Amino acid sequence: ALGYRLSKLSFRLIDRTNGHQHYPAVAMLAGSSVDWKVEPLMSVAETHLLGSTKGNQVGDTVYTEMNLLMYITNLFLCGKNLNFVRGQFLAAAGKLYKNKQKLALHQASAVARAAVDFIGGVDSRDYGRESPFQPPTWNALGDDPQMKGALDASFVYFSHHYMRSMLLTRDFSDLPSNGLLARIASRKKTMRIIFAVGVFYEGLSSFFLARRHSHQHCEVGMRALDFISMYSQANPYTFENKHLLLKAMLQQLSNSPEAGATFLASISSARQNKFIVEEGLACEMASYYFFSRGDADKSHTLKRHAAICYNEWGGLAVARRVDAEIRDIFGGDRLDNNEIIVERSRSNGNINPKKRQQA
Fold first, then answer.
1. Which one of 148, 330, 333, 334 counts the least CB within 10 Å of its CB?
2. PANTHER family in the record, alphabetically (predicted)?
């Protein structure tokens, strides 16, 4: 709380003293270190955008580019349309590559690669025309010695790695033995929003594996739940839905009768706070739960809604994975994408599939 008050005081002092040349630096430090712990993430993104704009006006090239990277990263984490995010990151990465700014290039490359893969599939080569720069494949990005030497490189990489494993590949075989949260704690890193979201996905991965294999993975998930719970108390806008989803998965593992209601609360919270990717994830996890309870209709509705969320986000490869699961689990006698409308009610969180009326 003190850090946030000091952050707001810094901005007020800039206004009172007409010290706008300092705004880019304050926006970068406050937005990346403090404000995201309290404010809605889109609000923090707007702070970084203003910092980049003012930095460009006063000729502060360093903070102009740093704020721009944070702005696009926050848009990505908010679930902004992937085609837009991909274009922004490829353009930024191309400029960083041209200017040989290796410290910032890793983060831009990691998000650009993740966005490209979520759209087109693993190691897709469809980069568009936004930049001559082509981000390395995911494996090459992790093995690049120059990337490993960049600032916060391994933390950024593994944050996206957990996200990619959970959303796209469902391959958890090459995750680190000492996870992201343990690495952050051991090195006493300054917490950033990308790391916090990475811990959320680490917890999801752990509980997902525990449900499929054994409860030996639960410990990591429980630590992630405690971590996200702490941030949820200070910033429910960004972390409430994440906390509820992790809590629901733990409740499912312990056979709690409250799990179903908690899953649905997570979906509602994600929708209310406009995290469309996490709404899709919560629908997926809830679908598994209700299927295990014998409610195939509800499971199918939730799974289909997840695919629609991913399509709306622009994650076409992720949506295809879900569509394949629907065919495998429910067969071909269910409704196709072009035969249903899902009404995403913003008021009560209900999911209501309807057959499309014939013209």
1. 333
2. HYBRID SIGNAL TRANSDUCTION HISTIDINE KINASE G
Provide the pLDDT for residue 280: 98
- The number of distinct structural domains making up the chain is 2
- Is there a domain that residue 302 lies in? yes
Q: How many residues does the chain have?
A: 359
Q: Is residue 291 part of a domain?
A: yes
Low-confidence winner among 74-78, 130-134, 195-199 (lowest mean pLDDT): 130-134
DSSP element (H, E) containing 53: helix 41-58
b/e burial code for range 41-72 (CB count within 10 A of at least 16 → b): bbebbbbbbbbbbbbbeeebeebbbbbbbbbb
Local structure of 131: helix, strand or coil: coil
Region 71-90: mean pLDDT is 93
Q: Please report the pLDDT score of residue 126 as a whole number.
A: 65
- Residue 327: the pLDDT is 95
Q: Vertex 248, ends 38 and 122: CA angle to 5°?
A: 80
Assigned domain for 343 exists: yes
Domain of residue 2, residue span? 1-78
